[in-house]
Structure formats: structure tokens, C-alpha cells
Amino acid sequence: MTGLVSPVQHTEDAASAESRLQSLIVSCDLGASEWIREDAIAKRLGVSRTPIREACARLSSKGLLEHVPRRGYRLPPLSSHDLNEIYPVLVELEVLSIRQRSLGPGGVAAKLRSLNFDPLRPPKDTAAFAAVDFAWHDGLVAGSGNRVLVTHFRMLYTRVSRYIHYYWTEPDPQTSADEHDQIARAIERDDTDLAIALLRTHRRCGLERIQRLIDAGP
């Protein structure tokens, strides 16, 4: 029979739609407070409305979309209040990962150096900047060897990914690279307190910059 979609194909379509729609949201390709028009998004992604509807429900559970009864889904506005609720928890998970690192100081430091910004090959666009930054911080948390910690970090990072991407609209990779390197060096020396202090400063500066951008408006 033709025209039928197998359960496997349906699942793949829904997963692909979710991933691609999430990319549009995170990259700020869709504006804050913008309503999701299922027909337009389906046409843009080349799928039917059903996987888009399912993707919206999943992304709403992740906090990337807001569900309004009888209206549909929309992107939540970028808000300092929302950011200030999530960001500190994200930082504390990173702090905990430094305390629990399982690879040994040298192993974690070497991994972080391999993930850091390469000054000879700087990222070409905002998405690339954000990807490198995520990879570095994710590597820091993964160094804990704690799967629960990693899972919760990635879940919260997804929540703030729009804000992180917004930060990289004014990229400063050299400053981030230097700060990342200082943290890695402290870990390599097994100076946990210094590594945590440097991480908190690094994250606080990033938070303040994002807040300034939000306050300044589009």
C-alpha cells in the first residue's frame, strides 16, 4: 500500500522535526514571542504538520516553547528573570563537576584544551561560536564521570541555549579562550578552589553581558 507512513518513519520524522525546529529556536532564527505557525514551519522543513505538532509539544516540555491553551505555541520572550533562575543552577552543576572530576586533573585539562577555541581557526559564525563554547563546558561536566550530572546539565543548557546564542551575536572568542585556558590550568594543577573561582567569574561575566544585551533590546 502507498501513502502510509510506518511507525519507524513517523518516529524519525518527528525526531528530525524536533531537532530542526530546536535549531531554529536556539539560533534566534525565530523571534522572541513569535507564534509557531505549524503550516509555515512544516513547509519550511519539508514535512507534514503532524511531526511539527509533536515537536512543539516536546520542545514545550524542554522549556523552549510556551503552550497557550486554544492558541498554540510561541517562543517565550528573552527575560532576565528567566535567565537568573536557570543560569545559577547551571553554574553549580559545573562547579560540582569540577569537584567530582574522575579523569584526574591532567586528563580533564587535556580534554578541555582540545575543545577550546583555536585562535588560528576562529569559528565563522554565531552558531559555530556557540557550538565550541557548549562543547567546552559540556566536556568540563563530562569529566565528572557522573551521568546524572551530565544529563541535568545538558537539559538546563538547552533551556538557556537561546540566551547563550544571543551572547555570541557579539563574539569575543579570545577572551573566552583565555578564560577557559585559565580554568584548565587550575584543574591541571589540582587547584580546585581556584578553578571554581575562575569558572564563577567566567560565567558571571557572560551572564552580565547577556543581561545587558537583553536590557538594550533588539
Work out the number of β strands.
2
What is the strand arrangement across the widest sheet? Answer: 1-2
Query: CA-to-CA gap between the ends?
Result: 51 Å
Tell me the count of domains.
2
The CATH homology group name of the largest domain:
GntR ligand-binding domain-like
Rounded mean pLDDT score:
86
Rg, nearest Å? 19 Å
Describe this entry's structure for a reader.
The protein has 218 residues and is mainly alpha-helical. The protein has two domains: 7-74, Winged helix-like DNA-binding domain superfamily/Winged helix DNA-binding domain (Arc Repressor Mutant, subunit A, Orthogonal Bundle); 80-216, GntR ligand-binding domain-like (Four Helix Bundle (Hemerythrin (Met), subunit A), Up-down Bundle). The chain has helices spanning 7-26, 38-45, 49-61, 80-99, 104-115, 126-142, 147-167, 173-188, 192-216; strands at residues 66-68, 72-74. It has a two-stranded antiparallel sheet. Helix 5 (104-115) packs antiparallel against helix 6 (126-142), helix 5 (104-115) runs antiparallel to helix 8 (173-188) and helix 6 packs antiparallel against helix 7 (147-167). It is elongated, with a radius of gyration of 19 Å. The protein starts with 6 loop residues before the first helix and ends with a helix. The mean pLDDT is 86.
